[in-house]
Design goal:
It is a single chain. The chain is mainly alpha-helical. It has helices at 2-20, 48-55, 59-80, 121-190, 196-230; strands at 85-93, 107-115. It has a single domain, classed as Outer membrane efflux proteins (OEP) (Up-down Bundle). Helices cover 63% and strands 7% of the residues. It has a two-stranded antiparallel ribbon. The radius of gyration is 36 Å and the shape is rod-shaped. The two termini are 44 Å apart.
């Protein structure tokens, strides 16, 4: 069993090294952190509005907003490209005297230009339609990502509640009971009033319960890490969720 756990640890280090390099090989702490509490979570869930309020400031969604704004600008530029354009110009020309020495009037010219695209209808419809389609595609991608994150958030919150209930059950009831039973079986064996096999089995059951408890604590911390990611606020990663 220890060999399997060590193999899983090596695999996890290799995956982590893809992101943080040699830092993934740092020695691991021997105990779980006691001060890593869950982020502030909404007391009421179940509605899309409540869930969306928690993730709307996530950097991944804000990045989509910027891309959508750029696409909307592209749509407007595509419309303006085929609109008539007006122009106004003025010129002043100085003229020297003629060959006989007589003065010649200077010239001042004012003009208006008016450019009208020829047969712009189909071309404009295609350009604007293509730009609009790209903008709508981005909005759909953002919506799908938001729904995915909302589902992950709801699942993680429910999972965290269940894990904390199990952790409390193990620490408050099961582990003390298992330890008491193992001690009682060992005492009975030492007093020649119990079976050695029963004493060993009781101790193994206690150790397995402790392993299960550690697995629950590890899963809880992983769930909290996932929640911290989902509740990240752009521009201030340490703040996490903000109502």
């Amino acid at each position: 069993r220890l060999t399997v756990v060590r193999q899983q640890q090596d695999t996890a280090r290799e995956q982590l090294a893809e992101w943080i390099g040699a830092e993934a090989q740092r020695p691991l702490p021997q105990t779980f952190p006691d001060d890593w509490s869950a982020p502030a979570l909404p007391t009421e869930t179940g509605s899309d509005q409540t869930l969306y309020r928690q993730i709307r400031h996530h950097p991944a969604l804000l990045a989509f907003d910027q891309r959508i704004d750029a696409m909307d600008t592209g749509v407007e530029l595509a419309r303006q490209k085929y609109r008539p354009e007006w122009g106004l110009f003025a010129q002043y020309g100085y003229r020297e005297d003629d060959l006989t020495g007589r003065d010649r009037a200077d010239l001042f010219t004012v003009g208006v230009t008016f450019d009208v695209p020829l047969f712009p209808g189909n071309r404009q419809d295609k350009d604007v339609g293509a730009a609009s389609a790209r903008a709508e595609a981005l909005k759909t991608e953002k919506l799908l990502l938001a729904r995915q994150m909302m589902a992950e958030l709801e699942t993680a919150m429910a999972g965290l509640r269940r894990l904390e209930e199990r952790q409390a059950l193990y620490s408050g009831q099961l582990l003390p009971q298992m330890a008491e039973q193992a001690d009682a079986a060992l005492t009975a064996y030492n007093n020649d009033d119990g079976d050695f096999t029963e004493a060993i089995r009781a101790r193994i059951d206690e150790l397995n319960a402790r392993i299960d408890y550690l697995s629950i604590r590890a899963e809880r911390l992983k769930t909290i890490a996932g929640l911290q990611y989902l509740l990240t606020v752009a521009g201030n990663e340490e703040e996490g969720f903000q109502p």
